[in-house]
Specification:
Layout: E1 10-15, E2 33-34, E3 37-38, H1 39-50, E4 55-60, H2 65-81, E5 96-101, H3 106-114, E6 123-128, H4 136-147, E7 152-158, E8 164-168, E9 179-184, E10 191-193, E11 197-200, H5 201-211, H6 216-220, H7 226-231, E12 237-240, H8 251-262
Parallel strand pairs: 1-4, 1-6, 4-5, 7-12
Antiparallel strand pairs: 2-3, 6-11, 7-10, 7-11, 8-9
Helix pairs in contact: 1-2, 1-4
Bound molecules: cytidine-5'-monophosphate (C5P).
The site of cytidine-5'-monophosphate has 17 residues, from helix 3.
Length: about 270
């Protein structure tokens, strides 16, 4: 008898509804050109290439015709790769692509995605479109942990810098420097957190249902999905991320991402 655990029916929510102000392109970040395509197209190809998803649900800024067209072009690209399959998300088929209107915050965009998942979905990965070059191996590590029984799993990287906490300087000290150090974190226990973050679907729904009642201050402090699951007291597991999985946020990040794409091996083949 085969006792290997069964891979859960998996959806990937790609959140791409941010404004991208810090990148300074004057357009939503997902549209910004990268290696001849858009950031969003790279992100979607990475998800599809991993082969883990029966559904890819993309949250874009409401009423954005260009991003809608990019998603539709990606759907056609998938179908053209395997023209003989019906495109209904069954095993071995191309994933179903669903497009939803994102919200005012990242968490609201995730909730819009959760509301549009196929009823059979058992596991969900939430991925930032801004991490356009995430290697397929990272999707596989997250997916394997879910198959092995994790309710929540995140990809992480060791922190190379020493990290300190600070507070604004008050009184006479303000003339010297704007901030005062209050402590030094133990670097060996720190991890920088990436996406895709994976969850048993009911666990993530429960976490987001609790967060929907947050006030504006609490909502602003939510920077990833795992922290909402932590608040439920559910264990969050960590697997290895990848340095190519950088979140394209500033103009420097875009230069690095362009450089990675031009690398001799092609970025997705380099293990992080
Ligand atoms: O702004 P931040 O760096 O947190 O964005 C992370 C990801 O969340 C990006 O891919 C961005 O497009 C997405 N996002 C979203 N809806 C928002 C804000 C951010 O989908 N309202």
């Amino acid at each position: 008898m085969d006792s290997a655990p069964k891979t859960p029916v998996t959806a990937v929510i790609v959140v791409a509804a941010g404004s991208g102000q810090r990148l300074g392109y004057g357009m939503p970040k997902a549209k910004v050109p990268l290696g001849g395509d858009s950031i969003l197209t790279h992100a979607l190809r990475g998800v599809a290439g991993s082969g883990i998803a029966q559904q890819i649900c993309v949250a874009i800024p409401p009423g954005d015709p260009e991003l809608l067209a990019l998603c539709e072009a990606f759907t056609q690209e998938l179908k053209a790769e395997r023209p003989d399959t019906p495109g209904d998300g069954e095993a071995g088929d191309v994933p179903v692509v669903t497009i939803v209107d994102g919200g005012a915050t990242r968490a609201e965009s995730v909730r819009a995605g959760l509301a549009a998942l196929l009823p059979a979905t058992e596991a969900v990965l939430v991925h930032d479109a801004a991490r356009a070059l995430t290697p397929e191996a990272v999707f596989h590590r997250v997916s394997r942990a879910l198959t092995a029984g994790a309710l929540a799993v995140i990809p992480v990287m060791p922190v190379v810098d020493t990290v300190k906490t600070v507070q604004p300087t008050s009184g006479d000290g303000a003339a010297i420097a704007p901030e005062l150090v209050t402590g030094t974190a133990a670097r060996e226990t720190l991890r920088a957190v990436q996406t895709p973050q994976g969850f048993e679907v009911a666990t993530l729904r429960r976490a987001h249902a609790a967060a929907a009642a947050f006030d504006a201050g609490q909502a602003a402090a939510v920077t990833d999905d795992a922290m909402l699951v932590e608040l439920l007291g559910v264990p969050v597991h960590a697997v290895r991320g990848a340095s190519q999985s950088l979140k394209i946020t500033t103009p420097l990040d875009l230069i690095i991402a362009e450089g990675l794409l031009e690398g001799p091996l092609g970025v997705r083949w380099v293990e992080g």
